[in-house]
Structures are given as structure tokens and as C-alpha cells.
Specification:
Layout (H helix, E strand, L loop, with lengths): L5 H5 L22 E12 L2 H8 L8 H14 L1 H4 L8 E11 L4 E12 L4 H19 L7 E11 L5
Amino acid sequence: MIRLPRRRLFSSLTHVDSHGNAAMVNVGNKPETNRKAIAVSSITVNKAAFESIENDTNKKGSVLTVAKIAGIQAAKQTSSLIPLCHQINLSHLDISFTMDPQTRTISVECEARCSGQTGVEMEALVGASLATLTVYDMCKALDSTAVIRDTRLLSKSGGTAK
């Protein structure tokens, strides 16, 4: 077995210092740029749950309204939820929903924007994820078998990272 010096082993990892310890990336020397990220997530539910969302008859209230608020609140708290995320001053955050009656799938899209030194991918992913989890929470009495899937980053722009 070949042993590499610790410094060399960890030197290419962005959130690990030369001793292998977790570390927050220093973005202080990076220029501020306009940044945008779009993330999606989806949930497939049974007929009763889908109809309660579509007809706005869920006993807990307006599912999509509550899910939108939850997603926005969550995205604003990303740095508190994910240990090494930077605190970001969001300039825009929007959550939208698309409903497919054939598959009984609700797709959530979260767009986050800021002008800053680091990207907003995690905020977009957290927003989409929590909005989807909220749909699940509000519909679990009607469908405990709902499936959340396909949470992913669709796009990002700004900065220099690819």
C-alpha cells in the first residue's frame, strides 16, 4: 500500500484543510458576481392526495401555498442547515409547481439568485427539497406511500466554477 503525505492527499479537496479537517472555503478574494441556480424535485402521490392538491381541498390547508412558504423559509436557512455553507444574502427566490395528472406527480422548481462571492446551488436545492417534503407532510394522511424523487440541480450561472 502506498502512503501519501497527508498534506498532498487533502490538498485538492475544497472543504478539507491540509490535516484532513473540515474547513469552510475562503471566498473573500473572489469577485462578487450575479449568481443564479435552479433546482427541481418531484413527488408522486395517490389519486386522493393529488385531487386534494388540485382542488385545494386538503384538510390541512392549501398544500402548494404552504409548500412554497416552507421552501422559501428553508432556502433562507441553508447555512444553518448545512454546516460548511456560506451565509448568502439572497436577492430573489421563487418556487413554482407543475402538476401532471397522468402520473399524479407534482414537480417543484426553485430558483435562487444573489450577487455574491459564492453560488446559490445549495439554497435552490434546499428550497426545492423542503417544498417537496412539505407536500408529503400535508398529504401523508391521504397517502403514506408518496415517493419523492429526482431532486437535482438543473442549472447554475455566475462565478467561474463549471
